């Protein structure tokens, strides 16, 4: 990384920009930086652009320039009611005044006269048609066309109420009557039912993406194998409507598990053993497909198509490879013939292990039925939104999605973050995702499929690191996070498609926009109907806590997140204690004294807002602080206030401590009781009543 005053190779610079890479960027101190040429070459190679010599750079640049003019996109994206310039390959060919036919998604044709765009190209005029996926036809040629509404649906539009509140939970943390050591979809349905009766409009959950069945130690919900499928450790027979079948095959209901932490390896072995026993019992009838359950299973498999088939093949192969040699955890270390999802050897192994292939289809079916039942329970309890799903920013580079789509993902690049005040070497998260080129090549199908998967059994979606719709920091493998570059994504097209899918699913869209945000990004998201996040700990102004009346009306109002301290934990300094314990903070750090001053500032803000009075509570008495904090957040102008269940219950420990792996029990903490008992305690009931009184209720 070099100061921006240094010069670069002109053609390499141009090729990088055409590939979506930013040769220059501004760091957290406001200093302009320039990406080193070798980093650009590595990133370009990972994106499919040869750049290892000046001649190869020129060849790649010529190919990119030719494609930009002469190739039609796989999908053209626009907005209802707005003129849409046609792509150069078409807009230069059809003159203004030409008539084309638009085949609407409902089957009706519409003849449209093209207009000029003022730059020598033709354009579709503003059209008053239903949002959807249509087809443009001229002569013998066609072009798929997506026309989206102006914005994602607003909370009021979806709920019929101006304001409401919701609760956020870590799914694994929930307890049920028979949870077997981990929160499952039955426990989720129970929680939704109780919160719905208390007037909650929404229940946000941690990611439920598919992990790695063969690796019981890989359990971070934000490092999945595949975001199109589900974490089967949350699947249970009762939630899927298979309780009678489970009993018939001798699966006893487990006693409710104790312990404060999820033992992921033990849970994984037990849950998978139970599901295998159920599959052995049901497999013949499900494969035959002659009864209602079998017919539903067969419909699920058909709907899953090649994506499901590739995922279950990966699960089989990962079990065989990693199970025999731990060094083969990553599919890129497998024999070449096993790196081809539809290759002869992979198909042969799948045929030889059909019962195992069937098992992995089965557990996805069980999980999907359970999640659908939880959303149905939320709706039945009166929640107008219900579940808010969470989409992780990427997938593991060694997972099933990357294996099944190697030509479409960031091969050799890791998503991360540039250097900042807390991490001068930057960050590499070991995550991959689809490339911008793959999105364009496939008509945005990877993005559309991802959003649809998240909304299939939910009334809303939270997009982790929503800035990734505009750009991602990517770093070549082998270096540090500092050796990275920003990769641009087609923000406007992605926002339009997000609005279209949210419109079709009648879903709320939330974007995690914390941290450093490019200028104008939050305003653009707000215009597009994507709600941001206003978090108590970050709503500061010169050290003072900002009164909630000044918080953004375009963002969810929140007391904390899974990566930040709970209110009770912050007041007691549990986050500081943990950071000192893991070596991130010295015992004589000024932060301990600063926390004492911050406590006074927070209580003063509470008093000013009218949610607290009298002297501030002692450090070891946080209950009144929690009460005041929830009332404080509830006063914000946001349409939806979303409170972590840890704060609703006054708990002190946070789910995740960033910057740690095993030093802190990340993604393992469990709630002390099942939701019906936990939410019925006097203190918690009083907080829920206060939220209803301040925010309103769907009842």
Domain module tally? 3
For the largest beta-sheet, the strand count, sense and barrel status come to: 8 strands, parallel
Specify Rg, calculated over alpha carbons.
26 Å
Average of pLDDT = 95
Number of beta-strand segments: 29
- The name CATH uses for the topology of the largest domain is TIM Barrel
Strand content: 15-25%
Please describe the structure with a list of short key phrases separated by commas or semicolons.
single chain; 699 residues; alpha/beta; Immunoglobulin-like; TIM Barrel; 8-stranded parallel β-sheet; 6-stranded antiparallel β-sheet; 23 helices; 39% helix
Structure description:
There is one protein chain. The chain is α/β, with parallel strands linked by helices. The protein has three domains: 2-69, no CATH class; 88-148, Sandwich (Immunoglobulin-like), CATH 2.60.40; 156-530 and 669-695, TIM Barrel (Alpha-Beta Barrel). 39% of the residues lie in helices and 17% in strands. It contains 23 helices and 29 strands. Strands 24-21-17-14-13-29-28-25 form an eight-stranded parallel sheet. Strands 2-23-22-19-20-18 form a six-stranded antiparallel sheet. It has a five-stranded mixed sheet with strand order 5-12-11-7-8, with helices on one face. A hairpin with an 8-residue loop joins strand 22 (471-476) and strand 23. Helix 1 runs parallel beside helix 2 and helix 8 crosses helix 11 (354-380). Keywords: Carbohydrate metabolism, Glycosyltransferase, Transferase. It catalyses: Transfers a segment of a (1->4)-alpha-D-glucan to a new position in an acceptor, which may be glucose or a (1->4)-alpha-D-glucan. One of its GO terms (biological process) is carbohydrate metabolic process. Its EC number is 2.4.1.25. It is an enzyme of class 2 (transferase).
């Amino acid at each position: 990384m070099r100061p921006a005053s240094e010069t670069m190779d002109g053609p390499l610079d141009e090729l990088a920009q055409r590939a979506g890479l930013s040769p220059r960027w501004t760091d957290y101190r406001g200093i302009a930086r320039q990406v080193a040429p070798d980093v650009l070459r590595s990133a370009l190679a990972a994106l499919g652009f040869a750049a290892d010599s000046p001649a190869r750079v020129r060849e790649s640049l010529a190919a990119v320039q030719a494609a930009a003019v002469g190739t039609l996109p796989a999908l053209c994206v626009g907005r209802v009611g707005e003129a849409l310039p046609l792509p150069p390959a078409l807009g230069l060919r059809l003159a203004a005044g030409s008539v084309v036919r638009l085949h609407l998604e409902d089957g009706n044709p519409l003849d449209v006269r093209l207009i000029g765009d003022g730059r020598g190209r033709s354009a579709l005029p503003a059209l008053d048609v239903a949002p959807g996926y249509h087809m443009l036809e001229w002569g013998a040629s066609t072009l798929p066309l997506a026309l989206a509404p102006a914005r994602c649906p607003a909370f009021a539009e979806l709920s019929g109420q101006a304001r409401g509140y919701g609760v956020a939970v870590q799914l694994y943390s929930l307890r049920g009557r028979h949870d077997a050591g981990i929160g499952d979809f039955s426990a989720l349905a129970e929680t939704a039912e109780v919160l719905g009766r208390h007037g909650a409009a929404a229940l946000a959950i941690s990611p439920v993406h598919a992990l790695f069945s063969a690796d019981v130690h890989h359990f971070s919900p934000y490092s999945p194998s595949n975001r199109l499928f589900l974490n089967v450790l949350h699947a249970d027979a009762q939630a899927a409507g298979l309780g009678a079948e489970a009993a018939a095959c001798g699966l006893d209901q487990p006693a409710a598990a104790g312990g404060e932490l999820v033992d992921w390896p033990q849970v994984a072995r037990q849950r998978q053993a139970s599901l295998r026993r159920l599959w052995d019992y049901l497999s013949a009838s499900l494969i035959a497909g002659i009864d209602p359950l079998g017919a539903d299973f067969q419909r699920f498999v058909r709907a899953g198509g090649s994506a499901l088939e590739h995922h279950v093949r990966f699960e089989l192969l990962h079990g065989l490879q990693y199970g025999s040699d731990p060094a083969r955890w990553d599919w890129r270390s497998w024999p070449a013939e096993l790196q081809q999802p539809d290759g002869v050897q992979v198909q042969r192994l799948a045929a030889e292990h059909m019962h195992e292939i069937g098992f992995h289809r089965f557990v996805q079916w069980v999980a999907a039925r359970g999640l659908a039942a939880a959303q149905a329970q939320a709706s039945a309890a009166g929640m107008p939104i219900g579940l808010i799903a969470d989409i992780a920013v990427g997938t593991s580079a060694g997972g099933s999605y990357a294996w099944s789509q190697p030509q479409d993902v960031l091969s050799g690049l890791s998503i991360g973050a540039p250097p900042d005040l807390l991490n001068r070497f930057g960050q590499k998260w070991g995550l991959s995702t689809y490339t911008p080129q793959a999105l364009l090549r496939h008509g945005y199908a990877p993005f559309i499929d991802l959003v649809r998967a998240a909304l299939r059994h939910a009334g809303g979606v939270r997009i982790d690191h929503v800035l990734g719709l505009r750009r991602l920091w990517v770093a070549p493998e082998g270096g540090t996070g500092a050796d990275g570059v920003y990769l641009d994504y087609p923000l406007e097209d992605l926002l339009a498609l997000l609005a279209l899918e949210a419109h079709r699913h009648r879903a709320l869209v939330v974007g995690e926009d914390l941290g450093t945000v490019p200028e104008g990004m939050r305003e653009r998201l707000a215009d597009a109907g994507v709600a941001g996040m206003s978090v108590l700990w970050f709503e500061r102004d010169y050290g003072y806590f900002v009164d909630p009346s000044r918080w953004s009306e375009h963002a969810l109002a929140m007391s904390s997140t899974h990566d930040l301290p709970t209110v009770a934990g912050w007041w007691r300094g549990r986050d500081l204690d943990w950071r000192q314990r893991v070596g991130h903070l010295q015992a004589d750090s000024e932060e301990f004294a600063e926390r004492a001053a911050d406590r006074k500032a927070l209580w003063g803000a509470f008093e000013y807002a009218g949610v607290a009075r009298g002297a501030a509570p002692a450090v070891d008495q946080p209950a009144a602080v929690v009460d005041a904090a929830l009332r404080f957040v509830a006063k914000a102008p946001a349409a939806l206030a979303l409170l972590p269940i840890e704060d609703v219950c006054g708990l002190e420990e946070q789910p995740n401590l960033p910057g740690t792996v095993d030093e802190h029990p990340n993604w393992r903490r469990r709630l002390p009781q099942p939701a019906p008992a936990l939410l019925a305690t006097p203190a918690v009931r009083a907080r829920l009543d206060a939220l209803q009184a301040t925010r309103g209720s769907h009842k």
